[in-house]
């Protein structure tokens, strides 16, 4: 067998044994925590009656679904707002899912963080190409990188 073929077969075998390929590497807890904190720090300031909840400025309509999915119980926006620990848990769960999705797609940490930040703000990971959205995404990325140091 050619050396390159042996390496390829060996790599596939190791990936099967370990259960993950390099393209499907799992995001680490410290990466999720860094991104959650970066999103919190980059969020617009809380303003009374702005229609957003918690330090992460979450839209009220998604809170019941996210809390049920990630905390096992449906929360109202008001409950979410009053429980910062639970809000962080729910946000972390959602961010982990989305960061993993973007990581699998891009296979690039910085791009995955950018696309997750864009998704967080717009619901679309690739829509932040101009204006204040670019500034927001860059702020999230910069803060994320500082959190990992």
From TrEMBL:
The keyword Signal applies. The keyword Signal applies. Residues 1-25 form the signal peptide. Keywords: Signal. This is Lysozyme inhibitor LprI N-terminal domain-containing protein. It comes from Rippkaea orientalis (strain PCC 8801 / RF-1).
